[in-house]
Fold these 4 entries.
Entry 1:
Amino acid sequence: MNIDRTAIEAMDNRFRVNFINSLSGFKSANIIGTVDSNQHFNAALFSSVVHIGANPALLGMISRPDSVPRHTLENINNTGHYTINQVSSAIYRQAHHTSARSERHESEFEFGQLTPEFRDGFPAPFVQQSALKIGLVSKEIIPIKSNGTLLIIGEVQTVVIPEQALANCGTIDHQQLDSVCISGLNSYYTTHLLGQLNQAKKDQPVAPLD
Amino acid sequence: MNIDRTAIEAMDNRFRVNFINSLSGFKSANIIGTVDSNQHFNAALFSSVVHIGANPALLGMISRPDSVPRHTLENINNTGHYTINQVSSAIYRQAHHTSARSERHESEFEFGQLTPEFRDGFPAPFVQQSALKIGLVSKEIIPIKSNGTLLIIGEVQTVVIPEQALANCGTIDHQQLDSVCISGLNSYYTTHLLGQLNQAKKDQPVAPLD
């Protein structure tokens, strides 16, 4: 079927939110850990973490507009530090719980039954239950004019990872970590390796990795 | 194990590219279709398509710097139109092939054995073999100062989707479409539904969707 712009604009609001949120395909599942100036810990599920560059090592994520209080965005603005913590199938329900609306003094770590963890002097809380944890410093917060959202860019300062999940080539084995992915707002998936392919050349057939 | 910034900077270049590219977790797999002013069709695999907003319906993606020719970026700049085409397990090798380096006059559609398809007067080519196809108009191209990459924001103009893959709530069933996801630069995965959860409330346990 064909769905044009007029039909999208005429959709019921909730239907449209589900539809547009699932257009891009599968999304990463990460919990962002921050702290405010009163030592309240914040955890928030983000499905928009995206690779920006390898050198310097940069990751991005989209924050909704700050027209209403956004604790994660505020804390990153104020402290400059945050953590990105991978969601596995063992904690996907807890991770989903952190997406609930809450007050500034309430910690999603608590009602989500996740444990804040401080490591190596890094000033933002990691999620103890995550196997892959990344500590970042905020580099740029870029306003997106089209709808008031913001692109937060951070530089990787530290990575905690089980040694056996790091392949010889540098790739992280997310299937071994049992990382999940998300579709839309509320569907969680495990994965199964289909194939690992060699770097593509235009005049050679695509082949499995040597 | 702990990998800090100094260790990341000291990594072999290829190792670092693989490592940082797999930090965010699973990524969407889409082929971007564009056309240049000489009617050369371009197809390029992107793993950075990300949800920006539902109303207006906006998707974003990251383009590498334009310090060397980037055909997709150039074509979007010149024509204002592009398509996003979902990658399924049936075409993941062809999709990967489009990531090969090529000259401006060469079409990745050809060496990738994919078929350009024009529909309903939309000026950019869709990928015939994709089940989910999206036509967009470019709204903003935002430079990221930290490394010279660009965030391309487009507004959805038209969506082609098999009717049975659209759930009553508006969510697209990507498992039914056999959509794949990517980890790092070259690992492709199929998915299996773990659970669909209700909207989270802080004072209620997380529960499967009603």
Entry 2:
Amino acid sequence: MQSIDRNVPANIESARVDLRLFRMAPFFKDVDERGLAGLAAISTLLTVPEGTTLCRQGVPAEHLLVLLEGQVALENVGASGASAVVEVVQPGGHCMLSAVLSGLPGLMNARTITAATLIGVEATGLRELLHREVSVASALLRAGAEEFGAMVRQVCDLKLRTTAQRLSCYLLELTEEPADNTVSMRLPFDKRLLAARLGCRQENLSRAFAALRRLGVETHGARVTLHDIAGLRSYALSGA
Amino acid sequence: MQSIDRNVPANIESARVDLRLFRMAPFFKDVDERGLAGLAAISTLLTVPEGTTLCRQGVPAEHLLVLLEGQVALENVGASGASAVVEVVQPGGHCMLSAVLSGLPGLMNARTITAATLIGVEATGLRELLHREVSVASALLRAGAEEFGAMVRQVCDLKLRTTAQRLSCYLLELTEEPADNTVSMRLPFDKRLLAARLGCRQENLSRAFAALRRLGVETHGARVTLHDIAGLRSYALSGA
């Protein structure tokens, strides 16, 4: 048992990380053997219950967190106390990279919204490794650029698209390139959190789902069926 | 005369960069002497007319650009052809850092909206320097984290705040911590671009300016006076 951040007591089980787990995470796919061994030496496998705060806004991050299973919400709390859901990280994703690379205080709270398994890579050790191992540096810089790119895409979506279009984009991202024009899936989290992630009120999300019905989007609770992926994509990408 | 990107012919004058110019840019403030010498060896001072495309979306960036004078708009063009103004870079700011660090294609077009003077740091040389000079690596990683942070703040603003609140935030950013409760300034660019940067239509920007009149925001063309900075700040930060 340990807390992953000195300031955050948490009910977390930790274990050594098997090298095979590193190879499972896209994050580390181009890291060479020596780089992986260096990472393994400063990493811990974390098993975390739902509702655990992993990192706090305003505090330097002590670990880079790579998510293997479960979901983590990244939230930013403004001066007024209002909280924005910046992202909900899915397996394969990561948290706190920017804070870990720079040593600056983190910008967001990271909180598990399901039980989760993560690799925690110790921040100071990672910054040292970055200067020694080029393959680790490349992987981190690439992941940083992808993380930045995801934020740029959100900024553009929020500036150009309506809630219904942003919802369409989000649903299409969840479908993972289906061959078919129809797909059925479960929303990965509840509609309250989905509304916050999309940046709208819950009543606007309901209106957006209603508006998408004519584009073949059928919902029963958390179950969503897209009956016309091509049509939905064309609508989602049509801009403002 | 040269074009700064192989694929972008442009009417650009170039010269060697005086070391004093590096010291003027906050970007390089913690870089040591050896790092600055390394940077100077791979940098060019660029004098660029208004309306020049410096980098194109989808193409790897050949230079990190640090803006000394003038303004540069960063725009992302979506699949539909609609273009979002992600940021308007002011002197002291930079462009293309994320693409330069990762070697991945750039996410945005960078275009001068005034005549501009920039330091162009050659991308491949910079990536090599990053692995040799710890003070350069630290400066770049910190700048990357700040750039990421600026995008996170935009995402939060767009999710939580109305157009009038986002406009208030933007006007307050332009005031640079005045001691007084009143300040007068010129908008750095036209209202069409301001609307795009804030992510609203021009008519909504006009409505937002009208709504801010009761909070002491007075406009005459590009001239803006804030008569109650404390009140405006409290309104801007009040969240959704």
Entry 3:
Amino acid sequence: MEDLTPEDISQILNTSKLMKGISERDVKKAPTLRGKTIINMFAEPSTRTRTSFEIAGKRLSADVINISTSGSSMSKGESLKDMVANLEAMRPDLIVVRHKSDGAPAMISRWTNCTVVNAGDGRHEHPTQSLLDMMTILESKRKLEGLNVVIFGDIKNSRVARSNMIGMKKMGMNITVCGPKTMLPLYVEEMADNVTTSLADAVVGADVIMALRIQTERLEKAKFPNAREYSRLFGLTLSHLKKAKHNAIVLHPGPINQGIEISPEVVEGQWSVVLDQVTNGVAVRMATLYLLLGAGLQKTE
Amino acid sequence: MEDLTPEDISQILNTSKLMKGISERDVKKAPTLRGKTIINMFAEPSTRTRTSFEIAGKRLSADVINISTSGSSMSKGESLKDMVANLEAMRPDLIVVRHKSDGAPAMISRWTNCTVVNAGDGRHEHPTQSLLDMMTILESKRKLEGLNVVIFGDIKNSRVARSNMIGMKKMGMNITVCGPKTMLPLYVEEMADNVTTSLADAVVGADVIMALRIQTERLEKAKFPNAREYSRLFGLTLSHLKKAKHNAIVLHPGPINQGIEISPEVVEGQWSVVLDQVTNGVAVRMATLYLLLGAGLQKTE
Amino acid sequence: MEDLTPEDISQILNTSKLMKGISERDVKKAPTLRGKTIINMFAEPSTRTRTSFEIAGKRLSADVINISTSGSSMSKGESLKDMVANLEAMRPDLIVVRHKSDGAPAMISRWTNCTVVNAGDGRHEHPTQSLLDMMTILESKRKLEGLNVVIFGDIKNSRVARSNMIGMKKMGMNITVCGPKTMLPLYVEEMADNVTTSLADAVVGADVIMALRIQTERLEKAKFPNAREYSRLFGLTLSHLKKAKHNAIVLHPGPINQGIEISPEVVEGQWSVVLDQVTNGVAVRMATLYLLLGAGLQKTE
């Protein structure tokens, strides 16, 4: 999200809206990327994101090749470079990269002339997630600018939080982040408009509430006795929603730990747009592939 | 097979015959399901069935996405529900489900508006296997009604046996089941016309003999000293075939344990239609996909 | 390569040149193999070769199905035969086979009427690798006949070396093989024009230098104290290149152990055609699929 201008983001979101229409048709197929080769290189397992990119590519008629590399052979920078050089030599048009190391897609992009899309790298960025979040907000609120958005949970370790803080700031949103002190990154004040450790305070007047997935193995390091204790302090409940705006919406990047970071009543209520996020994920990825291969956006996203 | 009427079964078998023609062509491709998205969700490994469904979908021009979920993350009902909701949000047209738990595809079908095809669930049903078995019998015998069919082996644990008992009864076939007492289910008399523990008795006058795959780890529970002992009592040999009708045929759902449930001479003889079953498997799956997505059959099969 | 005549090889190389053009286009797609079903059966993991065949098939519009069988279930000859019979019954047009056992693709070819392509079997052959090597040499040198080629490293265990010795001899190339005595096969003199254990001697006057990948676990058996010692004696360096012809080229089948069988300066120099080999790999595989399915070459390659 760091590389994108507000105009880029608007263009992607507008194109995503058109692309969503293709998935709503009876014949979910456009010939746009016929004869293009897309490699899905997932060095970290992720059925959802891989499937979303695969469906996006196929609905635009591209040839999609999946490569799931075990972390081992790709952990050394050198062999990753070698692998990428080899893939590039097979003349793909675009490589989608999921990697556990921060910055791996950016490195790959420097090594190759091929277009590279970041599908999530370590704790760094997850740009298509941020774009699908903004698309979902835009569908519901008709605008982004000026909205109050709360992002809460393990801010420090979340690439979703990071990409959204960067992207939403560019779109003029008013960002509040909330989490236990041990889960807030250094210099978080520079990335968000408000920072608090009280979820009850954070949600007051919110238009958008975005939960993050908690990785339970991190709770111990964060000095929480257990998931129940975490949930008591940082789990989103109906009582929080009453303090938000009456038409506030709730997002979650999934998969959800129900009863930990978010209560079942909240997930299933009418304010939940969690499944719209998934639907919009395919649309945003179609738009990304289309703009990078069919029209002209910059090389790395 | 429980949901299908005899008319449904006839319609699928007639359509399968047309579909088989596509696989015999030089250009094995029809544009029928262009723009449809099919997800192959295999929570239990099965190269054969997955490949059969994948080929069936691609020959009809659908986009086919494979998802192989390790049993672990899907063993909890809740996360399976969550996963299915997420897949549905990506707007597939049909989900093919193989699962180790009885009833998982039916549950999934209730959770989603998407069409669901059962590709084998636990010890419950394997409907496309039963349909391909009946197609193979029909090709050879020109009819189903009134035929004497013997199903023998581990009846209790076999979803193939169960789907066939249900389906063949609907088509008016005369069903004899045979196996050691410990491998016969409760109330088997209600599902079959004849029940016996003697294979020599069972095969007398048979038109169709269907072997089941024995899972050797089950022999011990069934109080058999070993595979050789089992084979002596419940392995199909040439001497059995002599008691069947002179033009009897032999089926097996594969993969075969040669020399255990069936002798090599029987597998390789002219009565064996085992490979026709595999060929017809692709045809039946093409028909299933076509009727559920192109024409109008009921939602769950 | 043993089955191919020099005319066959020339025909494949000429066709590969045409096929390479398709991968250079904006729309990398030809309708040639539309309606053909290709099964990639990889019983040994190989992301590169599998990806190369998958891209080749898809660029020619074939339906490509990947099957990765764990070695276990396929180690028994009988179950491999059974599996192949089953795959054939699904009416694929061509099966690409990678297998750890010498001769497995040839066996499979005898068992089936289906066209079989060897994608590397044990220490026996890797014909498409040899063809892509010759294509790369031809691109650079405009001819094959009369060229001096050096193949060095673990000759005994390399299917790449074996296929190239057979193929290059047919094309009239002058072959020198070089490696430690323990890595030279019996009767190597019958397969190569010159045999030496000195890399410095081997490269004198060479037009083409082909490194092989060393499997470090084999060094111990070959009585080398370690990789550094091996590298000192059998690693290709700039000083070797000075003894070769001034326009000599360097090939490597990948993946490269930089600093062991070849120094980084050599890999990155202008004489290195390693990435051209990868690009040509897709072209050679497209040509192979096309000639076997579209035009008329013999059944097994």
Entry 4:
Amino acid sequence: MIGYAFMGKAHSHAWRNVGSYFDVPAFEQKVLVGRNSAGAAAAAAKYGWADSSTDWRSVIRREDIDIVDICAPGFLHAEIAVAALAAGKHVLVEKPLANTLAEAESMAAAAREARAGGVQSMVGFNYRRVPALALARELIAEGRIGTVRHVRAAYLQDWLADPESPMSWRLKRETAGSGALGDIASHAIDQVLFLLRDHVTEVSGRTHTFTTHRPGTQGLEEVTVDDAAWATLTLASGAVASVEVSRVATGQKNSLKLEIYGDKGSLVFDLEDLNELRFLDATVPVREQGFRRILVNEPEHPYIDAWWPQGHILGWEHTFTHEIRDFLTAINSGAEPSPSFDDGLAVQRILAAVEESAAAKGALIQLASPVKSPAKSPVTEGA
Amino acid sequence: MIGYAFMGKAHSHAWRNVGSYFDVPAFEQKVLVGRNSAGAAAAAAKYGWADSSTDWRSVIRREDIDIVDICAPGFLHAEIAVAALAAGKHVLVEKPLANTLAEAESMAAAAREARAGGVQSMVGFNYRRVPALALARELIAEGRIGTVRHVRAAYLQDWLADPESPMSWRLKRETAGSGALGDIASHAIDQVLFLLRDHVTEVSGRTHTFTTHRPGTQGLEEVTVDDAAWATLTLASGAVASVEVSRVATGQKNSLKLEIYGDKGSLVFDLEDLNELRFLDATVPVREQGFRRILVNEPEHPYIDAWWPQGHILGWEHTFTHEIRDFLTAINSGAEPSPSFDDGLAVQRILAAVEESAAAKGALIQLASPVKSPAKSPVTEGA
Amino acid sequence: MIGYAFMGKAHSHAWRNVGSYFDVPAFEQKVLVGRNSAGAAAAAAKYGWADSSTDWRSVIRREDIDIVDICAPGFLHAEIAVAALAAGKHVLVEKPLANTLAEAESMAAAAREARAGGVQSMVGFNYRRVPALALARELIAEGRIGTVRHVRAAYLQDWLADPESPMSWRLKRETAGSGALGDIASHAIDQVLFLLRDHVTEVSGRTHTFTTHRPGTQGLEEVTVDDAAWATLTLASGAVASVEVSRVATGQKNSLKLEIYGDKGSLVFDLEDLNELRFLDATVPVREQGFRRILVNEPEHPYIDAWWPQGHILGWEHTFTHEIRDFLTAINSGAEPSPSFDDGLAVQRILAAVEESAAAKGALIQLASPVKSPAKSPVTEGA
Amino acid sequence: MIGYAFMGKAHSHAWRNVGSYFDVPAFEQKVLVGRNSAGAAAAAAKYGWADSSTDWRSVIRREDIDIVDICAPGFLHAEIAVAALAAGKHVLVEKPLANTLAEAESMAAAAREARAGGVQSMVGFNYRRVPALALARELIAEGRIGTVRHVRAAYLQDWLADPESPMSWRLKRETAGSGALGDIASHAIDQVLFLLRDHVTEVSGRTHTFTTHRPGTQGLEEVTVDDAAWATLTLASGAVASVEVSRVATGQKNSLKLEIYGDKGSLVFDLEDLNELRFLDATVPVREQGFRRILVNEPEHPYIDAWWPQGHILGWEHTFTHEIRDFLTAINSGAEPSPSFDDGLAVQRILAAVEESAAAKGALIQLASPVKSPAKSPVTEGA
């Protein structure tokens, strides 16, 4: 594993625990790679890795390494992933796939080539492994909400609500690529694609930076990424999705909100209540219709039979446990893990189109059909 | 109508508006009676009554009066009601039926006798006319939640939470009869009887006064009624109901909470969300079970087709509009209005048993079978 | 009053009841006007009007008429309102002000001229009189949420979710003007202006018709209005508002959702819970921050001291009671009622810009400054 | 660790992960003990234990063992715990402390004696380590809700709602001790003591078995434990707590509900939303009072700074991680871990009094003062 900050800590949790809950192939947590030698060594000890290193290049060449899990910052994704795939290692890379569309395209191409040789890859949109969202996808596929007309997707946070909170690398375009768009709109958009098994044909968007300057080490510095963004997406099916993301939505801590409206029913989800799914079945008599709060904690629900009895709620970190489980299972069976780098690329293209539309004052941007449909996921998650 | 304080204002609203929504027999708001001549006259003008009076005795003898609506304080209920029934007037009396069991019994006897002569009577448990609770009763009767095992009933308010709030007649046993028990436990207990169409065979109870002295006109005075009470009730069916009421539940403004657990489903209600009923149907597959929030605002719901399109919520005051509608409809058809004085008496007996048990340190009190079963309500409310 | 359908019934409720709760100048419900003589007569009797008529022109000339309340369909608003103002009658007109921008402009001009002569006018955006929204406006004005960054406004209904529900005049452009846009986006946009006391400078929008043909009397007919719309609005202050409306949001019955995010706090509202306002105060210590559910039912809240004790919730129809109260109070004091026809016109201009942008594939439309700032409302609602 | 069923799995999770989040003394997961040799070996491998055994007696004598974690069934607690303490091992035992009061008393006596020799012990009421409940306790101690008047505690589950669900050892008095009472009322009662730092002086109770016979291996067998129970508790402070527990509350999966009403505020909690605490501060102006939903996920909250950024919710299993952390920290510092066996004994005495009262038809049972006040916890949890 490369990287041991927030995502490295979360992925380590998953690697350390997946085997205690799921029947997965045997593996060892071999080596943790970081830029700082002492830091990497301490993190390796703390998070359950046998060894540590500061040289990812030598690690990915090691014979005893089969899998590379990339939790490094986004600008390093492409170089490491392409090299690791070339070295014949299966690769898991955190989302978003890359900071630029060009990088994402090179990664997707490398992944396609590697796959032909039996080397697997996956992008870490962990919210696909929230049991409630996996259930939502199943219900949609089963036709339980009928034809989807529109989706309201929002990802709201507030960690930049204070205009005095300081400048950081995340607020500069050269290091972060974009702001709320790449960081959290990527999740929201991936969910639209995941839940509807569809692709986007048209995009209109807008971005905004409410706090344009923040205190840096040399006085006020310019913020060069968005802190909020809005978009509408047309899907191939004709459905329309609105997407709204913000890092200044005071009081919203980590609220990925999804509302999916079909002609036979609806689904509503909020990541702050990640064990719950609201489902309205419009085919029951009107007299007894209403949004049901399903506590997605029953053995009948995706991933849950591995855990606790009903009503003992799961934490956010286990979305990664499920991700690793599905990744290992796919590798073992030779199936293509999902979401693929192509799925990650599809999200990047939509993000790029939002920025293009925003630069063109909201003009509608057409998107070409995806290289391959993300709808045909060979691995059924949580099965 | 006799009385023009809180309840008089609410009943007036109902009389003034019922004909604009429901097909009811024609009637006129003839005369409003109050102790204070000027006050009654002003209230009559404000609330839509043609005339006012300070003498209820002469009013109930008037030939042009057919119905007497008693909103006077509880200690006057028995005298007025018995006299009005004797004068051949149909009588609606606010809950609780009376301040003492003896008075309640005399009223119920008078009502039975009057009914034989075609003179009708009704006690104003207005929450039977909350559409969501009327729907709950229907669902239970249809077997949608199966056999009811237990009920959690609570009525929580906080208007006495401040220990400095002053002494009043409501806090003295001689004027108020009891505290939270008679005032709000009466509603909670009536709902248990109404929803389950059952009667109580055993009672265990406890009462408490948290603030024993309050500032009065002559310094600190003793509070001689309860400000909270707890009881468990055994029903003839074997179901058990817990009842908890409080006037010091800080932050709970007017929260009548009902939870009914059956072997095939459950229902949950809170008066602070009076347009909503939560319903869990345990006969659907576990994977999609959950409490549904039914917005009880559809034409298919009790009373609603008279009002607005879906989603336009009704206020608390219309529980009285529905009550008057049902009362007028019953009178017109010759049917027995529900809840009857016997129903009111059944509640009084349970309240008395709670006090008796509390005085006996929680000992279980047996109740005799009701004079007649409250289960056979000849009028289906809201039909 | 002209018109006795849904809005006529609701306005009648307000006229019939306002005097029972509020100190308003004396008035009489003189005459109800409708196209059908028998229907108007029956409605007049039912809703408390002394007389009825089929000829609005003669009615507005009557000496004993001082106020005209226009609940007729939108395409009649302009003609009636301009004539009534010219006849020296105070005019209340239901929202939206008119079906076309040209009509709205003529009405606003007439209203300005009439006002100079002491004749008042008002447009019926009744949700300004929801106590929770009036409280929200006060809190924003007091700086309790600081500088507003962005607003999420949505109005979701589902009465067209069923693709088989039939064609009606509301689904034809020539009769309805627009679809969800004029009908419900008008409310959402008015709230943005009302709450923020600001005006819109830039608009980008999109509209969509999910069900393009519906069964009519002669087979399938084309739906020529939108059933959903999306927009982003830039406000003069720099705030951005997203607006999303739909009539096919299955399970959402009448859900006007408003979320206002400032740098010191936030407010959240849903019309389906119209007695509640959620308020997050970001100036209290983080450890105890959270959205508070304020039950807007206390004497300290706008309009409430006229009603019931705390916790006895108000219904939707009383937004009109408050509206009539404020209208009468303004007329009596000579103050300008709010919202004015200019306020109604401001909303129409934004709606027109949404359609213009939608036709131009999302291009940003600039709006001129309003004739006068809607921010300076001379009447403080609910005071 | 002894036992590897539900609780063994959960405790293992905690031991395996605590060091990755908290600074705790170094330790090793040495040996897992179970009755079945193959089962214990497989569980040891899966859950991270170096070795396994079927002989707890030999294991607790091993020199390299310092801590014994008892997850065996309740009837084994006393024997193992007393032996382990005698062998000088620190002991953690799952709740409830024991199946009988006599056993609990012997354990508490052994723990007191061992403590004098520096050997520590703790009972595993893990819900004391829910961050939201630890925060609730802090707020109460700081006087934020003033003097507590009453508490509503309920623990509702539904896994026995189906009358056809089969007989098991949990439904027999000889193996299970009691039903819902020992299993879940113990948690609810411990929370009352924990949150209020108080002790109980008087108990009145009732128990019931709704389904008296269930299908067993030889036909219908008698259920000899309760499946629901009700109690009221008087606390030394004068506060009154109601407790209601059920295993047949259809639709309630694992709902420990706590409502604490003080004269200056209130707190509400539900285990099904374990990352949330509702707090009403009655000292702010009435106009802005309301229950705040605090997402207890901020670095300022108990235990949270070890985990993820705000809004990334924690799962149920981490209540054990926190428990192990506090246990290890106390051992290391020589402080007395909390809750002690005396705290566990206090709960047992209350449970016994509920049964005694139930047998005496609800009569009030007086409780002696506790051996030592549970209020003086030397370790502040989550500090």
